[in-house]
Amino acid sequence: MFRGERISRDPERIEPLLKKIQELWSMKPDMRFWQLLESVRFTGGMPPDTFYVEDNELNYALDESIRVAKVEHIPKLEDLVKEVKVIE
Questions:
Q1: Which of 65, 67, 41 is nearest to 53 (CA)?
Q2: What is the pTM assigned to this prediction?
Q3: Would you say residue 2 lies in a domain?
């Protein structure tokens, strides 16, 4: 790349990324925004300095974070058994 040359990024990439952030945040509503992004960075294996992270890397990290969050929301068997005993 030459000095002064500009990379044109596709504006269509923005909405899907924001929808993924919204999906993840709705699963973790008690997190503050920067806590959420830091957890995405950690879970997605992103470097500590995210200034040069490309959007496709963020997209992967968000997908991974959403996958993990969905697994975390699966009830544990022992919790389900406790609920059944309470109902009886």
A1: 41
A2: 0.74
A3: no
